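Chain and conformation:
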Amino acid sequence: MRRASRSQTARARSGVRVLALLATLALAACTSAPAVLQPTAVPTREPNTLNVSVLLDLSGPRAPSGQPQRNAMQIWLDQPQTGPLKLRVKFVDVAGSDAKLLIELRRAVIDDRADAVVVGVPVSLDDPFGQAVEVAGVPVLLTLPTAEPLASPGGRFAFALAPTPDVLARAAANDIVDRGLLVPLLVASDESAPAVSERLAFLAELRRRGLSTPAPVSLALADGPQRVRLAAPLARSVVLAGASAPYGDVIRGLPATLTAPVYLSYLTETADVTNLRDQAGIVTWPGSRTLAPLSFEPFAFQRVFIQAFTQRYGPPSTLAATAYDALGILDIAARQAPAELDSLSLRVRIGTGGYAGVVTRYDFTPQRHAGFVNLDDLVYLRWNSQRGAPFIAPKATTPIR
């Protein structure tokens, strides 16, 4: 009788969770066309199998593209999986749509019975997405920068693998100030959601230091690119907020004699830099020192990833390597107890351990779900066109005048 009672209780709790998630997503996506819900067969759960859904922008205009992240994860999956545990990964294209992101999160948890979800698109846990994560109740790993998850709804189950926006803003301000490149400063934004978030964080950091802040140039306006091209030769440094892909034409249109360094975002794909051709040498961007083999000697397991990715797709970006690490974090947490893959146990194991990844060593605690804490691993990168690889920009020992 006791066993039957527990089974009934579990079914009841599962039903309440499903209804709650459906209600949350319905309210969050009320402005979009309602999804048609049809009965679906409940998939059979294989023992010792961790089901992971990965939500990426594999199509649509939103940058950065999720394809490099998918490529990196595929390299992880192509490695032999030994032992009793198996990761089963499903890639889902959310096509640059926030509404579809919510729908696919629901589908992953309810229809596909995902044990964990990896999200490789720009999100904020302060909006309906955070509420959906809270109701979904499974670990969600975020590969792009976001604020400390525990400060927002859904933070109990969300884990951030990238540096927070505040950390990235401090790094940019430190580099620009230390090099004496603050005045005059040109800040431009394509006004996408990630770009606006970065721009606000960077300008807030300057104000915190008591420094003057320039009026940003909006590339969403018709005359925005022309204003950047005219102002850049007069600036000591140029900051372009948000993903690197939308800025290709603007950077290629800058004068060949430009001396001001162009600061790109953490959301920079290596392919975007190489596509700048002759202008690749003027850009710098924050990323993992591991991915600068011309300046840093990585460990053997890091070299394995770098070499495999480079052979298939070219030098990896920090975002791609972070996606690779996401599967490694889930694998380590699951292997600690392959027979206990319920969401609570998995969340606790992720939130109380560390993981030596390609990008950095991630450390989570019950009080901190932003795992990129070793800031020595965060450096500014530049491109060596002769060697076809990034290198670490030397730190300024004295300001450049």
